[in-house]
Amino acid sequence: MRLKHHARTQLAITLIRRGMRTSLVGRISGLRPAMLRELHHEIHGCKPLPGQLPSTGSLLGSARRQANASVFAGLYRAFGGAAVQRSIDIEALLTGHRIYLEQMARLAASGTLGPSLDINHGWVIARDLTTGLVLFRTCERCTIPYVAWAYSHRVVDCPICALKVSRPSRDGADRPPHDEAVHSPPAGNHEDHITTTDP
Questions:
Q1: How many structural domains does the chain have?
Q2: 123 shares a domain with 46
Q3: Are 85 and 154 within one domain?
Q4: What segments bear the compositional bias annotation Basic and acidic residues (predicted)?
Q5: How many Å apart are CA 176 and CA 166, to the nearest integer?
Q6: Which of 62, 87, 114, 192 is deepest in the core (most CB within 10 A)?
């Protein structure tokens, strides 16, 4: 029991250091909120900030953001395999996100994909892959794999093809093509299926 608790505490420390919200860390580790708040204060020197997680629609709300999310999701699946569509693989999530940030750092100068997704954004994508709200697809035109929102109403669903036909704004803002209508996902609870490794 002590070893199991130690492993969960170490996992919680890793997740908090990576910037994950304590509410998510609690779901994954099973540790009490009071302990997680104390760990957060010791690691970051402040109390955890409240707030809601982003919606799937906002993370995939434009071709640029969808392409950004596709880079992370592709790396996540590369480390977790097809099983990530059934349950969240925490180790694959952490590794995939670390490699994703390294790739985004190389693209930062171009601003091609906009701001990087943080670990909480990655969690939302990983979660919604298990519920079917986010789907892996491969474009028939450019053959590039990408992720799409199950309720997307775009004429061009592939973000790479959509970016090719879109016109960048003068100030470099994230202006989606005219066919990128985005609607909020239907309300409902998400059940998280989490895969962790205990000694």
A1: 2
A2: no
A3: yes
A4: 168-182, 189-199
A5: 7
A6: 62
Q: CB-based contacts of 69: which residues, under 8 Å, 6+ apart?
A: 59, 60, 117, 121, 125, 147
Asked whether 30 and 9 are in contact (CB, 8 A), the reply is no
Q: Quick one: tokens of 12?
A: 């919680």
Q: 71 and 133: one domain?
A: yes
What pLDDT, on a 0 to 100 scale, did the predictor assign at position 152?
77
Cβ contact 17:87 at 8 Å: no
Spatial neighbors of 98 by CB under 8 A, at least 6 apart, are none
Mark whether 26 and 47 lie in a shared domain. Answer: yes
Name the residue among 176, 134, 178, 181 with its Cα closest to residue 159.
Answer: 176
The C-alpha atoms of residue 36 and residue 142 are separated, in whole angstroms, by: 45
